[in-house]
Amino acid sequence: MSDREIILTQEGYNKLAEELRVLKGPRKMEVAERIKVAREFGDLSENSEYDDAKNEQALLEAKIIEIENTLRLAKVVDDDDVSTRKAGVGTLVTVHDYEFDEDISYGIVGATEVNMAENKISNESPVGKALIGKKKGEEVEVETPGGVMKYKILSIQRL
What we know:
The protein is 39% helix and 28% strand. The chain folds into 2 domains: 6-77, Transcription elongation factor, GreA/GreB, N-terminal domain (Helix Hairpins); 80-158, Chitinase A, domain 3 (Roll), CATH 3.10.50.30. By secondary structure, it is of the alpha/beta class. The protein is elongated and about 70 Å long. The protein is built from 3 helices and 7 strands, in the order E-H-H-E-E-E-E-H-E-E. The strands form 2 sheets. The chain has a 5-stranded mixed β-sheet with strand order 5-4-3-7-6. The protein has a two-stranded parallel sheet with strand order 1-2.
């Protein structure tokens, strides 16, 4: 992982910290128990349960390192610093989509917090980049893989 700054909302930081706690505690113990049980099956050279458990342990350790690095590099956006005057990380921006003639709300979050099911988009995505720094009433054109989208910002509030 590069040493670039990772932007997170407080909610995103808390979720990662909780995931790390689970991985380093209960999850690590489960995998260790699987390895212990698999060892009891005998010859390790032909023991697929042991190999699977060791592979799972390696993946778990890699995930722990990834989350620790993310948390170490994270710049947490303080909710009190989130302005509703301009779109930014930690804001919920409601726009009018001219092409589909509908209103859509996007939560702008750091890249590690993206959740399309909740309409949380990255500040690094084409739409996120285009909205950042814009104010209510402004119109925005966004170059997306699907073509140019045109939006009008209707409201900006905290996530």
